[in-house]
Amino acid sequence: MATISAQTKGREEVAGWNPGQIWHPPTQGQCWFDKAFRRLSFAFAAFTILLIAWLVLEIAIKAVPAFREYGLGFLRGTTWDPNKAQYGILPEIWGTLYTSLLALIIGSAFGVAAAIFLSEGYLGEVVFKTLKVFNLHFKPVWRQLPERLELLLKNLIELLAAVPSVVYGLWGLFVVIPMIRPAANWLHAQFGWIPFFSTDLSGPGILPAVFVLSIMILPTITAISRDALVSVPPKLRMAAYGLGATRWETILGVLLPTASRGIFGGIVLGFGRALGETMALAMLVGNANRLTVSLFSPANTLAALLANSFPEAGPKEIPVLMYAALVLLAITLIVNIIGALVLERAATKGEPR
Amino acid sequence: MSNERDRLANEALEDPFAGVDFGELELSLYRPRTLFSVILSWLVAGMTFLALVPLFAVLWMLIWRGGQKLSLALFTQLPPAPLQQGGGFGNAILGTVIMVGIATLITVPLGIFTAVFLAQAKDSKLAGAVRFAAKVLTGFPSILAGVFVYGAVVLTTGGYSAIAGGIALAILMLPTIILTSENAISMVPAKIKEASIGMGATGAQTVWMVLLPTAMPGILTGVMLAVARAAGETAPLLFTALFSNYWLTTSNGVDLMRPTASLAVLIYNFSGMPFANQVELAWAAALVLVVIVLITNLIGQIFSRQQVQQ
Lengths: 353, 310
What we know:
The complex is a heterodimer. By secondary structure, chain A is mostly helical. Chain A is built from 14 helices and 2 strands. The two termini of chain A are about 55 Å apart. Mean pLDDT of chain A is about 85; it is low at about 1-10. Chain B starts with a helix and ends in a 5-residue tail after the last helix. The mean pLDDT of chain B is about 90. In chain B, strands 1-2 form a two-stranded antiparallel ribbon. Chains A and B meet through α3, α5, α7, α8 and α9 of A and α3, α5, α6, α7 and α8 of B.
């Protein structure tokens, strides 16, 4: 000990360097800060879980009076009449599932197509073919070009999700509905005997709502499916090409099955998003308490019901709306938990190595 | 026998591909499997560009219909009464900024501390549960955040307020901030962290002086994305902040406990009105809102470019 301190002292004298001021064991205050920091981050993390529990409990407790009064018959009732205190949300449950499912079909077809287009090197091919057509030599400057284009398209598709839903609602109200109305009414006149076309489109209705909803869930599906396709091991693709498979035999026979779990997870999460989407539906679906399969008829969804009724609800109607919110919460939580679980399993053991 | 073999060998030397039908190997569109592949490729390309049409259609309509109305008065005046001409949405812009600000003030400390916990106690059971909770919360319907805050805040404080709106937005921002910050913190190279611990820094010092500054661009990206999302949210504000035709300021300063206007709710309310002036204002407000959201997104993108890669 003595020698060391003597040595340090010597150096201190030589260089004017005082190690005692630069390093020292953590002071009392720093240890205390460390402890407080650890406790605080633990507490905040635990709060996130408590928050979900609190959310569910708060809505459930506020719904208890309505549950006592209407019981499970609430889920089967088809009238919504605050004046007679008769409430039932079967049309809303049906509307929520019907619009989400239709939007999911369109959204996942386009979403997965875009994911394939953006992950299979199509843009590289386009770039090289264009160069060939114009008889240009490949220069190193262009090496980044296909990747840049891919990134640009990917960001553009993600921008679709950045546009607020109320803006889509506005667009749907003043652009989409007038645009599709002639076609919808023609379909109704010609094929009115098909249940899907059994009413005419007089304004807001299921079809415009589904159209906008599918645009809104497409980016989710594309982003997750693309991640799943990109993470397929390259050797599988090489092996398929090596056996003489065409590009699409490879995609359909090897890539999609391998990435299927990730794609499925993305689709489930897109479904969850569609179920909970509020504004576009509140503006476009027509808020009619109707149980229908017609694409052109107005209908209602759980989220739209909440958005339209809550601001003007009286104290008697609030518990009923809380009950409806609880049903929506149950449906979306189940779908989202399934989606998150599927994706977690896809990430850990989905792909053979 | 040996003659036969010689003959075959000679034949092979003269024409090694004698038994091969070259037509079979050619990439020809007359072959169903090639044709199928090419058609599907075009289909996929077409669908991708078709998916982008709505984006440009929306932007075009916003610029065309909202741009006509754009003037300085929009940003300084109050919303007009029915049948009144002119007016603007200055209070709605201010309301959106204030409520998003409140939400940011709540979520940034909460989210970053949680993310630090997740990144440090990576494999603990609680961390797994929190991560899962955050993922589930990402897909949480925004209207239910409004319902929850209505029950928990509006009913207890006795009225619609900017604070209630801010809390509702905070619930929606929280998962984005937690997940992106955790990702950013775990991207910090392990050697930097180990060097700090090796020099005798406490855990808190390592996080505070090494991990967070290094991960800052990634964290800011997450914050910006969350802010952009919150600015456009309507559903949670409908019955927490409600709407107001007036400024938030009263004779004694800014009062956050009053109903507050926001751009998103203004668009929703005015789009359903039968008056041309209100509809025009809704389009102009939509243009302003989209510009705000896109700029915030863009700033997030710029931050994400500066992120440290492992």
